[in-house]
Amino acid sequence: NDNEITIPKALDEASADDLFCKNMLEGLRSNPKHLQSKYFYDAAGDSIFREIMNCEEYYPFNCELEIFSENTAALARAIMVPGGAFDLIELGAGDCTKSSYLLSHLVQTGADFTYMPIDISANIIDYLNLQLPVTIPGIRITGLNGEYFDMLEKAAEVSENRKVVLFLGSNLGNMEPANAEQFCRELRGHLKPGDLALIGIDLKKCPYTVLAAYNDKEGITRRFNLNLLERMNRELEADFEVAKFDHFPVYDPETGACKSYLISMADQVITLNTKEGKQAISFAKGEAVFMEISQKYTAQQVNQLGKQASFETAESFFDSRGWFMDTVWLA
Ligand code: AVI
Questions:
Q1: Cβ(214)–Cβ(294) under 8 Å?
Q2: Ligand 1 centre and the CA of 169: distance in Å?
Q3: Of 14, 72, 127, 251, which residue is the least packed, with the fewest Cβ within 10 Å?
Q4: How far is the CA of 185 from the centre of ligand 1 (A)?
Q5: Which residue's alpha carbon is at the smallest distance from atom 3 of ligand 1?
Q6: Which is it for the CA torsion 203, 209, 212, 217, positive or negative?
Q7: Which residue has the higher pLDDT, 307 or 1?
Q8: Which atom, in ligand 1's list, is nearest to the CA of 292?
Q9: How many CB atoms neighbour CB 217 within 10 A?
Q10: pTM given for the model
Q11: Ligand 1, atom nearest to 258 Cα
């Protein structure tokens, strides 16, 4: 595909598999145990995540969709400089349901821009390169397959245009606050004065509402978390019995940290197969494995986060309930 900049696949995939194995083992050998939620998203996890986005209790997706569908023209004005060409870079584009409102509007109004979705999944980038020109005729797209900051560098190499970076869906919330701060600094480091970032963040709200979003009645979020154990069964020849683990989400309204754990329901030993041979991991009955943080912020905290990373807040957009925020930061 001419549109795509990519790292040679064989090498890439082998090292990704090794890293998955290494990270899982490190987490399971730690005390307390933890696993990294970025590994939730294999093909099965992607599909469960789509179910989450459609479930009644998971409000963040609909809130941000409302912001993008109701404020499309205002969002476009906020990121445009009259007449200037720019690159619209989306970190973790997914199927770009939300950003497609903005993309269609920009194409219709004749904006001079190239859409550059960045995703770690080669499948998603292939899909977008093929599909978007069909759903949004006239769009210029250059998909970038790789890690966010590596690909931001690539984007700067291939074009000198002003950059507008989208980081939506409250993905920033899946970093511990200190890491989120570091991430924003690093993002700022990849941008030049005049470039912009448009960040979507889930806000603090009624604790029942937050907790329910991560503890849906149908048990979709439970399956989403347990899928990481199943992924280890599939990819690392592990022998987790997922019925012996329970999903335990908590929300601390004071700190805004919503965290998911898996609890071992029995004393048990699991094994997994690595290059170095079979590894055994023991779990005590009642032991917790930390899986994911979905940090919630106040609007003031978001402004502060931008400021600490040397961004200036240009404009912020909220859904009608004030539950979610999309903020425009000027580098
Ligand atoms: C992708 N990310 C912003 C989601 C969130 O809300 O933290 C992932 C998720 N985990 C459980 N439900 C959704």
A1: yes
A2: 8
A3: 14
A4: 23
A5: 171
A6: negative
A7: 307
A8: 10
A9: 9
A10: 0.94
A11: 7
